[in-house]
Design goal:
Layout (H helix, E strand, L loop, with lengths): L1 H24 L2 H7 L8 H24 L5 H22 L5 H21 L1
């Protein structure tokens, strides 16, 4: 189970670091052109969402890797699941596609389940 956790957590962490990093570091015009940043949302809010995603991704990897409070890893994964559920609700309420939220959300959910099995 530990190997499965590391595989899924690594893929999930990469996905969230990539998505969050793009939101943090990407220029506003590029994010709006790609459809990542809708007109109704401010750049500050998008950067905050990106920061939450990056911190959550770090929470999947660093606690078990360092051996310091590995129980925080499944908690971080649960937090990312909540972020993705809120993203689905938000996108659905505005008639936007939810395709970009399903895979990271599923990865976070599997990571949370495996993390609770392995680390608790």
């Amino acid at each position: 189970m530990t190997i499965a956790y590391w595989i899924v957590a690594s893929v999930a962490a990469l996905a969230f670091v990539f998505a969050g990093g793009m939101k943090i570091a990407g220029p506003e015009s590029a994010l709006r052109d790609k459809g990542v940043l809708p007109e109704r949302r401010t750049m500050a809010r998008e950067r905050a969402i990106g920061a939450v995603e990056v911190v959550g991704a770090l929470g999947l990897i660093l606690p078990p890797l360092t051996g310091i409070a590995p129980v925080l890893a499944p908690i971080a994964a649960t937090g990312l699941v909540i972020v993705m559920v809120l993203a689905v609700v938000n996108h659905r309420s505005h008639g936007e596609p939810i395709n970009g939220t399903l895979v990271p959300g599923a990865l976070a959910l599997v990571t949370a389940v495996l993390g609770f099995i392995v680390w608790i």
